[in-house]
Amino acid sequence: MDVLPQLPPDTAPLEHQVAGHFYGRSKTKFGLLQRCSTGDVLKPLLNPPRGPREHQFYDNIFSDKISGEIVKLRPFLPKLLGTYQFDGMTYLILENIIQSYEYPCAIDIKLGRVTYDCEATPEKIERQIAKFEPAAEIGFQLLGWKTYRQLDNSYIYHDKKCARSLTKDDLLYGMAHFFGAPEYDHRPIVRAVLERLVALEQIMAKQYEFVFIASSLLIVYDGKNRENDNIKVDVRLVDFAHVFPSSSNTEPDENFLFGLRHCINYLKMLIDDKFQYISIDKLDHTTNLSTSTCYKTLLK
Ligand SMILES: Nc1ncnc2c1ncn2[C@@H]1O[C@H](COP(=O)(O)OP(=O)(O)OP(=O)(O)O)[C@@H](O)[C@H]1O
Ligand SMILES: [Mg+2]
């Protein structure tokens, strides 16, 4: 049996994680953790140069020395709170952006038509493309989401395998499902998210310093407060293991922007009056719980 890495004191696997390395389930068995007393996220810095590159990027963005358009990106990132060493592993300590939500619903959307960097081997490139072929056309892919349903006090979780089985048309309904369809009107939440995405798009269109390969949007909202007056949403970027200084310094990151703009277009389709939800069989896991990593849990 595989031995799990020892958990640092006062930590547990990250609650409400929807994608990426899950503690105990990833190949290395390392995964994201949280500090029980504060809720802060601990992200292990795995596979050099990936982990150290992400650390370097956070350091750059939050450094006093940087200026210009890139500073405006700070509100779209979790804050870097420091680093922590335990048992030979270094962890980034990050602001937990989900912690303040009573019934958090979260989705991880990886951006970019190209999700491999210039260091990738031909095999790696092939693997990345095969993971979700429509990404080359639409520039984004869903990696997983969880959504809360107040009607039966449940959470429904879909993993990346399930998300990647969707066609580019199915994706629209997958996203609608994340935002509450068909039980609830998804539009007020989508409108609030769109506002944040458009603000992010404006910043990214003017920053020429970095290229973001395979970074994700983490979109969060509160599943209980769906009325216009008390909607709570957040949009952040996470995962900077493949962020590089731009080689040109005169052009925006078109690969990232292409994906972001397509994602915005999908959400605009969702708020169109003519949009009608169609349920997707591949997302119906409620009858097949034991064989799937997608599941529905009833809260007590
Ligand atoms: N600051 C945060 N607050 C709350 N949840 C987070 C935060 N950062 C990450 N997460 C959760 O963890 C998941 C994975 O995060 P991330 O993409 O950074 O890790 P990873 O994919 O395992 O890393 P890498 O690809 O660099 O090895 C996200 O989809 C999200 O659910
Ligand atoms: Mg990730």
From TrEMBL:
Reaction(s) catalysed (UniProt annotation): 1D-myo-inositol 1,3,4,6-tetrakisphosphate + ATP = 1D-myo-inositol 1,3,4,5,6-pentakisphosphate + ADP + H(+); 1D-myo-inositol 1,4,5-trisphosphate + 2 ATP = 1D-myo-inositol 1,3,4,5,6-pentakisphosphate + 2 ADP + 2 H(+)
Keyword RNA-binding attached: no
Gene Ontology cellular-component annotations: cytoplasm; nucleus
Q: Which GO terms describe its molecular function?
A: ATP binding; inositol tetrakisphosphate kinase activity; inositol-1,4,5-trisphosphate 3-kinase activity
Keyword vocabulary terms for this entry: ATP-binding, Kinase, Nucleotide-binding, Transferase
State its Enzyme Commission number(s): 2.7.-.-
Q: Which InterPro entries match?
A: IPK, IPK_sf
**Residue ranges that the Swiss-Prot or TrEMBL entry lists as coiled coil:** none
One biological process term in Gene Ontology = inositol phosphate biosynthetic process
Tell me the protein family, please. Answer: Belongs to the inositol phosphokinase (IPK) family.
Q: What is this protein called?
A: Kinase
Species of provenance: Adineta steineri
